[in-house]
Write a structure and sequence with these properties.
Helix content is about 50%, strand content about 15%. The protein is of the alpha/beta class. A five-stranded parallel sheet has the order 2-6-1-7-8, with helices on both faces. A three-stranded antiparallel sheet has the order 3-4-5, covered by helices on one side. β3 and β4 form a beta hairpin. Bound molecules: 2'-deoxycytidine-5'-monophosphate. 2'-deoxycytidine-5'-monophosphate binds next to α2, α4 and α8.
Length: about 220
């Protein structure tokens, strides 16, 4: 029998890191749904489409193929057979992903894809609406939170390690607060804690502590 672990929360709350590690430990599939919204954003930016033009957006969506593949122990994401794992983390994509992910047609397509994957695989899936909309019957639901400044610091260190030095810590803090607000207030599937989710405040936790905390609840 397959089972589902839903992990939601704002950006840099630790959810992706933890979901990835626990998926590996449990031998189940890891799905980073944020990466999927980012890949669609890459497609929209490449086609130079006005996101208010529904027809153009629909056209892009009908020609899109998104796949995950493991390369040297790391999950990579492919957009129409092209590896976009680096590109999806660029400042340009990060600045545009909230608006693209608020579009109804985009959400419908990706939610369907996410459900399809979860219907045949045990998954640890992280995002904003997994426990509330995508997998409301998930066996396990977690909601990660953390102080915005701590999250900005994490993103800053992550960027530094990847050689992305175009934003200061202050700029990142501002961007994170703005994105939280946008993601929490959009009309369709806003970032919201599922009523039955276990809340994990990761502000003062190490990654190991977050992982052990989550695994402590998993009885599979
Ligand atoms: O987790 P992330 O920062 O990579 O997510 C990128 C954006 O995608 C984020 O601003 C909100 C959106 N998103 C979403 O709307 N629903 C999801 N399930 C996952 C991400």
């Amino acid at each position: 029998m397959t089972y589902q672990i839903a992990i939601d929360g704002p950006s840099s709350s630790g959810k992706s890191t933890v979901a990835q590690i626990i998926a590996k430990r449990l031998g189940i599939t890891y799905i980073d749904t944020g990466a999927m919204y980012r890949a669609v954003t890459v497609a929209v930016l490449e086609e130079n489409v006005n996101i208010e033009n529904n027809e153009e957006i629909e056209k892009i969506l009908s020609n899109i193929k998104i796949q995950f593949k493991w390369v040297e122990n790391k999950q990579h994401i492919y957009l129409n057979d092209k590896d976009v794992s680096e590109k999806i983390r660029s400042t340009k994509v990060t600045s545009n992903v909230s608006a693209v992910s608020a579009l109804k047609a985009v959400r419908e397509l990706l939610v369907e894809l996410q459900r399809e994957i979860a219907s045949t695989n045990s998954v640890a899936m992280d995002g904003r609406d997994i426990g509330t909309v995508v997998l409301p019957n998930a066996e396990y639901k977690f909601f990660f939170t953390a102080d915005a400044r701590v999250r900005a610091k994490r993103r800053f260190e992550e960027n530094k390690a990847a050689g992305r030095l175009d934003q200061t810590l202050e700029e990142l803090t501002e961007l994170i607060i703005k994105r939280d607000k946008y993601d929490s207030n959009r009309e369709i599937s806003p970032l919201k804690q599922a009523e039955d989710a276990i809340v994990i405040d990761s502000t003062n936790m190490t990654v190991d502590e977050m992982v052990e905390n989550v695994l402590g609840y998993i009885k599979h």
